[in-house]
Design brief:
heterodimer; A: alpha/beta; Rossmann fold; nine-stranded mixed β-sheet; two-stranded antiparallel ribbon; 15 strands; globular; B: alpha/beta; six-stranded mixed β-sheet; about 25% helix; elongated
């Protein structure tokens, strides 16, 4: 029996991991220096969630996939030019700050409202995907809060594998301590899955998929609802880069035997 | 233990026992952090039926011990864990809720914060009271910068990273545990936890309690002096070292990505081993990186490694310089073979 899912992936944008980041203080709280100038990418774990979602939707005909993304509209457009070439999806855009210093519960409220406004979404078939943590705030809080706002009581975090069983139940592998996975089975949708790396490699760029996506993405960006976080109650006393730089002793002239002696003494010491 | 601290908070500490009834080290560290904040605080213990009545922490000085007991709460399931935590928070009327950042609490507490109208900060690495207010330190942008924060909103929930405080130590005793009743309708039992999938004991390479983190970089799979790659030899050397040293294995992103792309690389390496920007930031007293040339293992993945050494053929490796205490300019294949002989 075919199972149809409505998969909504929540995924923000973050600075390219190779960029140097520096915090600056402003009237509205901390932000990143030259934040709007930094090249951005889709949040890495959310990107894995998107690829897993596309794989699931393809395997279950009749299923649909939406990507809900919050960020400055211009940056979203820039990132979507790349993301759109990966897998087919429908974009729901929110125009607002994408930085790590915003309040998770405010972001969750905006995302939940956007999801509730998706035309044609059947919440009984809903699988809410996202990264288990962002590469910005890195709290692992937003997705769970969105799930709570949508009344979803089956939630999983650190997911590496989802299997849809013949009866529609969902078997999930979640990361737990010590490199292990917890194995759970949920009765079916709706459910929240915060993805870790999953099992799928990044899809190659497909210009055809990109062109198909961009036809809908540009209008979606035009309709992006504004999001202005209030940030009430959260006060940043300081935001700093770690200043410690180690005095590295560079050892060039020792033999492998001598280095091994040093290392073993250090390991055992 | 709480000199200079005058927090006017009602503190609830949430802990859960392991499957064998013991308390994880991270729970005792969280208790140590809570105790340091205020011995007058109200703390709570959440117990499954397999726990031993709060005896482990009976003498910690908490004013109340609350428990949720029952077979349905033994498994780490979102719906039942969230219901239990919600009930404990409401019963205790806590203004501050602390919990160790175990996978179990990390799964549920953000949702619980939403449910009880609270706010949450996770991965907290330091807690302190300053001028009568609670301040927390946590990292942003994957350990690239850290912030000290405080909040006016209550309840404020915080999950505490391992190592935040020395583990609480005290005599075992007998605690008067108040049982908090929690209803669990069918809607909260749609998920069943069937077990844990773990590598065979001799193939387990991730050891959170190990004294040493061994980070293998992509250089292990590259062509060597003879113009050929020696992946089998690399695997033998790395596994031999892990067996002898009991170290935990980390990897750079580039190495595990090779595995994900279907290339025949180190068969025991997975994304679970990855440290750095999109991987883990493990805590170990010592770290040894080999054949790593990227930023991630040295800058982000090593953030919480105290003593750091690296073996690298490139004496100008900018990523190791300034990040490691010692950089050995040498061939890791040769060095690790000799290390294994000595171990």
């Amino acid at each position: 029996m075919p199972h149809v899912f409505h998969v909504v992936v929540c995924g923000g944008i973050v600075p390219d991991p190779l960029q140097s980041l520096e915090p600056v203080a402003g009237a509205a709280g901390p932000s990143l220096k030259n934040e709007m100038m930094l090249p951005a990418v889709l949040d890495p774990w959310a990107a894995h969630a998107l690829y897993e979602a596309a794989h699931l939707v393809k395997a279950h005909p009749g299923s649909r996939l939406w990507l809900v993304s919050l960020g400055p509209k211009a940056k979203l457009q820039q990132v979507m030019m790349t993301v759109a070439q990966k897998v087919p999806f429908e974009l729901i855009a929110l125009d607002g700050p994408a930085g790590g210093f915003t309040e998770a519960c405010e972001v969750a409220e905006a995302l939940a409202n956007a999801i509730l406004g998706i035309a044609g979404l059947d919440r009984g078939k809903l699988l809410l995907f996202g990264g288990w943590e962002s590469a910005s705030r890195g709290a692992g809080a937003t997705l769970a809060m969105v799930g709570e706002r949508l009344g979803i009581l089956d939630q999983f975090q650190g997911v590496d594998q989802l299997t849809v069983n013949a009866d529609g139940s969902l078997t999930v592998l979640e990361r737990i301590e010590g490199g292990q996975h917890q194995v759970s089975t949920a009765a079916g949708a709706p459910a929240v899955l915060g993805w870790a790396t999953g099992h799928l490699p990044e899809p190659p760029n497909s210009p055809a998929v990109g062109m198909q996506n961009m036809r809908a993405i540009m209008p979606a960006l035009g309709k992006a609802q504004p999001f202005r976080p209030a940030g009430e109650g959260l006060r940043f006393l300081s935001v700093e880069l770690p200043r410690q730089r180690r005095e590295t002793r560079i050892v060039r002239d020792l033999s492998a035997e001598q280095i091994a002696d040093e290392l073993v003494a250090w390991i055992k010491g | 233990m709480d000199q200079g601290v005058n927090l006017m908070e009602r503190i609830l500490l949430l802990i859960h026992p392991e499957a064998d009834g013991s308390l994880p080290k991270s729970a005792l560290e969280a208790l140590g952090a809570a105790a340091a904040l205020s011995k007058e605080a109200s703390r709570s213990v959440w117990l499954s039926e397999r726990a031993t009545g709060g005896g482990f922490v009976a003498t910690c000085g908490a004013q109340r011990f609350l428990g949720v007991v029952g077979e349905q709460f033994a498994q780490a399931r979102y719906a039942s864990d969230a219901a239990a935590a919600e009930a404990l928070i409401k019963t205790s009327q806590a203004t501050v809720v602390l919990a160790p950042a175990t996978s179990r609490w990390s799964r549920v507490l953000a949702g619980v914060a939403q449910r009880v109208g609270g706010r949450i900060d996770t991965h907290v690495t330091a807690l302190e009271a300053e001028e009568g207010r609670l301040c927390a330190t946590r990292w942003y942008y994957r350990q690239r910068m850290f912030a000290r924060i405080t909040r006016g909103h209550r309840p404020w929930m915080l999950t505490l990273e391992p190592g935040i405080a020395p583990p609480w130590q005290g005599a075992a005793g007998s605690a008067q545990v108040e049982n908090v009743a929690v209803a669990l309708p069918d809607a909260m039992r749609r998920t069943t936890v069937s077990g844990v999938q773990a590598p065979a004991a001799d193939q387990q390479t991730i050891r959170p309690d190990a004294d040493l983190l061994f980070v293998a970089g992509a250089g292990w799979t590259k062509n060597q002096k003879d113009g050929k790659s020696h992946v089998d030899e690399a695997a033998k050397l790395i596994l031999g070292f892990l067996r002898a040293s009991k170290a935990s294995l980390g990897s750079s992103k580039s190495l595990v990505d090779l595995a994900g792309e279907g290339q025949a690389v180190l068969p025991f390496m997975s994304h679970l081993n990855q440290v750095g920007q999109t991987g883990a930031t493990p805590r170990h007293p010592k770290g040894l990186s080999t054949c790593c040339h990227g930023e991630e293992p040295h800058v982000v993945g090593w953030r919480f490694i105290s003593e750091r050494r690296a073996v690298n053929l490139d004496p100008n490796c900018g990523w190791a310089q300034g990040k490691a205490d010692v950089l050995y300019v040498a061939d890791a294949f040769e060095v690790m073979a000799k290390v294994n002989e000595r171990l």
